[in-house]
Model the fold of this input.
Amino acid sequence: MTFESYIQIRERSEQLCANLETEDFVIQAAEHVSPAKWHLAHTSWFFETFVLKPYLSDYQEFHPDFSFFFNSYYNAVGERTVRNHRGLMTRPTTEEVFDYRGYIDEQMKTVLENGLTEEVEATILLGLNHEQQHQELLLTDIKYNLWQNPLLPAVINIKEYLKQEEGGWIKMKSGIYEIGHEGEGFCYDNECSQHKVYLDDFEIGSQLVSNRMYLEFIKAGGYEKPDFWHSDGWTWVQQEAITGPLYWIKQGGDISCYTLDGKKELDLDAPLAHVSYYEAAAYAEWAGCRLPTEAEWEVANRKFSWGNRWEWTNSAYLPYPRYQKAPGAIGEYNGKFMINQMVLRGASVATSPGHSRSTYRNFFHPQYQWQFTGIRLCKK
Amino acid sequence: MTFESYIQIRERSEQLCANLETEDFVIQAAEHVSPAKWHLAHTSWFFETFVLKPYLSDYQEFHPDFSFFFNSYYNAVGERTVRNHRGLMTRPTTEEVFDYRGYIDEQMKTVLENGLTEEVEATILLGLNHEQQHQELLLTDIKYNLWQNPLLPAVINIKEYLKQEEGGWIKMKSGIYEIGHEGEGFCYDNECSQHKVYLDDFEIGSQLVSNRMYLEFIKAGGYEKPDFWHSDGWTWVQQEAITGPLYWIKQGGDISCYTLDGKKELDLDAPLAHVSYYEAAAYAEWAGCRLPTEAEWEVANRKFSWGNRWEWTNSAYLPYPRYQKAPGAIGEYNGKFMINQMVLRGASVATSPGHSRSTYRNFFHPQYQWQFTGIRLCKK
Amino acid sequence: MTFESYIQIRERSEQLCANLETEDFVIQAAEHVSPAKWHLAHTSWFFETFVLKPYLSDYQEFHPDFSFFFNSYYNAVGERTVRNHRGLMTRPTTEEVFDYRGYIDEQMKTVLENGLTEEVEATILLGLNHEQQHQELLLTDIKYNLWQNPLLPAVINIKEYLKQEEGGWIKMKSGIYEIGHEGEGFCYDNECSQHKVYLDDFEIGSQLVSNRMYLEFIKAGGYEKPDFWHSDGWTWVQQEAITGPLYWIKQGGDISCYTLDGKKELDLDAPLAHVSYYEAAAYAEWAGCRLPTEAEWEVANRKFSWGNRWEWTNSAYLPYPRYQKAPGAIGEYNGKFMINQMVLRGASVATSPGHSRSTYRNFFHPQYQWQFTGIRLCKK
Amino acid sequence: MTFESYIQIRERSEQLCANLETEDFVIQAAEHVSPAKWHLAHTSWFFETFVLKPYLSDYQEFHPDFSFFFNSYYNAVGERTVRNHRGLMTRPTTEEVFDYRGYIDEQMKTVLENGLTEEVEATILLGLNHEQQHQELLLTDIKYNLWQNPLLPAVINIKEYLKQEEGGWIKMKSGIYEIGHEGEGFCYDNECSQHKVYLDDFEIGSQLVSNRMYLEFIKAGGYEKPDFWHSDGWTWVQQEAITGPLYWIKQGGDISCYTLDGKKELDLDAPLAHVSYYEAAAYAEWAGCRLPTEAEWEVANRKFSWGNRWEWTNSAYLPYPRYQKAPGAIGEYNGKFMINQMVLRGASVATSPGHSRSTYRNFFHPQYQWQFTGIRLCKK
Done:
C-alpha cells in the first residue's frame, strides 16, 4: 500500500466537512449519533492506537488525553468518554483535531514509506475501511444534527434522491448456495467464513420501493393501524409518534424533505429513504410481500442494480458458521454487536467509493431511520 | 376432542394456584409479568372470544367488561387494559375470575358435546395449547411476584433443580437437514413450514451447564469484565447491576436460591436456571464455546435428553420460509413478535405435560431471566 | 386517657374498610399513595414501636419482619420497604394485618390500664392523632387506587360534595396578630411556637370556590393558555396532560365524577375538590384574586365556616420561629418535610372527627390533586 | 440614560467571553444551563423585542427567526426553542450573534439619542439589569459547561475564593421592621412593595461558612446519614450520589476545585461555594443552627459584609404583600417563578458591578449547586 492511496481516503473525510461552520462540528443531537469533530478525531485515533503506537518505534503520541476522548467502544483500550457526552467536549477544538489528523498522517507517511509487514498492512487496510465507514456516518450524523435547526442549512452537495424505473420480479431457483466472503481482497471478519446455505425458490424485486409507493401505504392508514406492524414496531410508532420517514416535512398537501443540500421537494419516483426496519417490515406486510433474507439478497444481487439505499433484510445480525473474531481490541470491531440488530445489504448514496461489495454486512437496531435506508421486496 | 380432555388441561391452571392467598393473585411486579388472576381469566377469555362468541348460538357473555380486562394483545379484538396496569385491577376479584372460568367451562361443555367442525376443533386445540403456555407463565410470574417479598413464601411444590451427570460432546455431520413441523399433531404456525437447511459439521453438548460450572465463570470475574459480553449485554449488566442469575441469594460464602417451594440451598450439580441470553452468550464465550443455532438443536435433539431448562439458542426469532400467519386475530399469536427476540428450544420443569416437542420455538427478549432458562454449548 | 377513647379511634380505621374486597387492600397505584393494608398495619406499628417496645416490659413483638414492612420513613428506626414497593407485598395478608391490629390493641389495653406517665400518654396521644391522619389518607388512597378500575366501584358511603351558599368578602384590619398553637390540648410540633406576625389589611372570601365557578375558568381556556399559571404549573399541565380536576369524567356535555360512593353527577353548587396548588393559584390569578397566606387564614378563620375542603394557601411549609423538633425518631414526624410543599388549612369531608383545629398545618407538594383540596380566595 | 452608560454594561457581556473558543459558545451541559451564545443573543433579543420593535419607527428586525431562537420563556411573545435544545442550535453562529449584538446596539444608539419617554427609559433600564443578571448566568453556565471537559480549561480570570476572618454573632432585637424596596432607584417587581414584618429576637453570623467548616461536616459523615437532611434533600443526595459541593475534586487526601480560572487548590479559609439549599440546610442542622429568613437577612445586612456568595435563606420565593406583576410579557419576568424555589440574598463574586442591593431577591430550586452559593447561619 502507498501513502497516496492512504491519503486519498483520509482526505475525503475532510472534504466532506468543507462547508461546515466551526459550531457544526461540536454537537451531538442524539446518543446514537456523534459530532463531526469526533468522527474526524476517532478515525485518526484508530491509526495512532493500532498502528503508530505498536509499530512505529519511539512514536510520540499527539496528546495524552486524546485516547480518552476518541476511543469509541474498545473496552480493551481502556476508559473513554461516556458516549452521550461526546457533544459536550468543546476542547480539543476543531482546529486541534485537524492538527491531530495532520500529525497522524505525517507519522503514517513514515510507516508507509518504511515498507510494511503483512500484519501492519492488514491493520492499516482495516483502518482505511474504518475511515470509510465513518465517512458515511459523518454524512448521516451531520444530517441528523443539523436537522434539529429550523434554518435547515445546506452543507454538503450530494444528490440523495436518484430516479429509477419501475421494476419487475427476478425468479431464483432453490438449492445450495455459497455466501460470505472468499479469496483475495479486504473484508470484515463478519463476512467470513464463506459457507453453504440452502434456499427455496424465491422472487425478488429488481427495484427499490419508491416514495410514491410508500406514500400509498401512508394514505392507506399505515401509521394508524397496528395490523401490519410487529408488536415492538407498533409500540415504537406510538411512543415516538412516528407518522412517516425521517426528514419528511409535510406542509398542507406538499411533502418536501431535508437533505444535506438543504430542503428539497420530494421526488416521488426516487427510492424511499430513512425508514426503520419496523417501517420496512410493515410496508412489506401491507404490500402482501416480505423482506428478503441476507442470503437471498446475496445470491441474487448480480441480477439487479443496487447501491442507492441500504436495504433492510429480514435477517438478524448473527455470526456466520466458523466465525472467528480477531484477537485483541480489533476483535471488538464486529462480534460484540451481534445481537438486537438487523442486517442491511447493498450500499447508499452516502457510501464512500470503493467501500461496497456484495458480501458486505451492515447492521443497525430496527428503530433507526437516520441512515440512507430503503426497501426491496420479495414475494411471499 | 372430549370435554374430559379439555377440562383436564383447564383444571391444571387452578391446581397450580391452590396454595396462593387471595392477595397473591393480584400483583404485577414488572411490566413483563402478569398477575395470576389475569392468567386465569385471560385463558378463559380466549375460549369466550374465539370459540363461544363466534360458534355458540345465543351465547351470553359472562361480563361486558371482561374483554377489556383480559384481552392480552389482540389489537383486532379491540381496546384493552394497559399492560402495566394489570396489577391495579382489584376487581373483578379472584373469586369472580374463578366463577368466570366455571361459566366458560360449562358453556364449552355444550360446544364440545354438540360435536365440532374441524375449524372449531382446531381453535379449541389452540386454546388448550394457549392455556398450557400460560400455565408455565403462571408459574414463572408467581415466582417473580412473590420474590419481591422478603418472606420468600413457598407456594408451589415443584422440584426446580434436578441433578444431572457430567456430559460429553455429540458429533453431527454436515449436510442438508429438514427442520420444522410436518404431518399430524398440533403445532403453532411459527413451526411451519418444514424446510431444508444446510448445516456444517458441529459438536453439541449432551448436558446442560451446571450451577457449579457457571459459578466458575462468576469467580473468574465474568460479571466484572466486558471481555466476554455483547455490547448490549454489558450495558445491561452495568445498568441493572447484575451480578448473577436471578433468584440467587448470596450470604457470606453460601449461595441459596428462591424457588416456588421456598428458599433452598443451591444444588451445584443441577443445571443452571434463570439466566438471560446475554449471560448464556457471555458464558459460552468465556468457555471458548458457542450457543447452538435452533437448527442445530433440532437436528441433534434425539441424541441428548432435554426438558429441564429452556435452552437459549443463537438464533433470532424470525419466520421460517413460506411462513403464513393465521387469518384474523389468531394471526397475532406469533408473527408480530418475530423481532428483537431469541429462540429457546426444549422445555422446562415448569412446562405443562404434553406441551413440549422438538420443533417447538419458544422466544424471549435477550435480557429476561425470569423463565427457567439454561445453557447448552456447542464447540466453536 | 382511657382504653375506650383509644379503641374508639382505632376502630374507625377498620370501619372505613368494611366494604373493601381483600384484593382492594393490596394495591398501590402511585408512589405517593399506599395500600389500605399498609395504612392499617403502619398505624399499629407506630404504637408497637414507640409505646409497646420501649414501655411495656417483656413485650413480645407480633412478627420480627413487620417493622421492616410497616415503617414509613423513620430512618432512625432502620431499614424499610422501598416506598413504591408497598403494593407488591401480598404477605402479610390482610387477615394477618387485622390480627396484628388486634394484638396491638390488646397489649395497649394493658398499657392504658396500668396508668401512664406523662411521657407515655403524650406518645399515645400522638399515635392516635397519627392514626386519624392516616384515616384520611386511607380514604384518599383507596379512592385513588380504585379510580384506576373502569368499574368505578362504590366502597365507602361518604357524601363528598355538600352544597354551600354564595359568599361575600370578609374585611380584616392590618396589625400584629398571634398565630400558632398555645396552651392546653394536642398539637403537632409544626404548630409551635405561637408567634407574632404583622398583617396588612386584607379581604378573604366567606365561601369556597364552587364547581360552577371553576367550570367558568375551564371554559375560558384556563388549561389551554399559560397566562395564569406558574411556570412549573404550566409544565405540569402540559407534561401530565391535565385538563381539569382529578376524578372528573367528561362525557359529551355532561360532567360526572368518581367518589368513594361510586360515580355521581357533579353538583355545580358544591365546593370544588381535587385540584392541585398549581390549579388553585391559576384559578385565583384568572379571577383577579390571590390565595390567602396561612397567617391570614388563621386570623380570619372564626369569621367563616370551614372543614369541607383542605384549602391551599400561598404559604410554603416552613418552620415557625423557635420551632424545635421532638428528639429521636418522633422528630422525623414533621420537620424533615419542611421544603417544597405548600400549606393547606382547614379540614375536609374525609378528616376524622376531632382531628381539626384552626392552627392545624397540613402540607402537600403543589402538584397533588388526590386529597380533598379546594380554593378560598383573597382580594388582591 | 446615555448611550455610554448603556454600552458600558453591554460590552461587559462580550468581555467575559474574550477567552472562549468558538466551540465553547455552543454547548448546553444540562437543561438548567444555557450556551454562552444563547445568553449573548437573548439579552439582545430583549432590547429588540421590548424596545426597538415597539418604539423605534420602521425598525427592521435583524433576522426573522431570531425571536424563535432567543426568546427564553416569554409565552406571550410566542413560540420558542425547546429549552433543552438550545445547545443543538449551531446556527446562527457565534459570529452572527456578535453581529446581532452590534446591530442592536447601533439601533439602540438611535433610540437613546432621540431622547426617551419615561416608559421607554424604564424598559431600557430593565433590559440592562436583565443583561447584568445574564452576565452572572453567563459565568456560572460557562463554568458548568466546561466542567464536563477533563481538560478543565481556564477561561476567565476571576478570583472565586477570597479569604475571610473568623466571625462572631450579631444580636438583633424583636419588633416591627420594614422590608422591600422603597423610593428611587431601580428594583425588580418582586422587591415590592415595602411592607412591615414582625421579627423575634435573633442572632445572625457575621461571616459565611468556610470550606474548612464544611469539611468538618463531611468528615462527620454528613453525606452518609439522613439525620440532618430534609426528606427531599436526602433523596437528592442518594439519587444523584452527591458527596460534596459541586466542582470539588478529591484526589487522595487533597481537595482541589475547578474554577473559571482552571483547577486550583481549595482555600480552606475562604467561604464555601456551590452548595444546594439542601446542603445548606443540612449543614445548619448539623451545626445546631438554622438558616436566616430573608427578612432577618435584610434587616441585619448593614451589620455584616456580604457580596461574596449568594446566601441561601430559609424563605420560599413568594410574593410580597400587594405584589403586582407588570402588564404584558414583562410581567412574566418574576411572578410566574414564585413556587418551588428558595430565596437567596446578597450577591456573589460573579455578580456584575452595580447589580446588587440589600432588597434584591435571587431565587433557585433547592437542588441547584451551580451558582456561587454559600451559607450564613443564625442561632436557633
Remarks:
- Residues 327 and 333 of chain C are 10 Å apart (CA to CA).
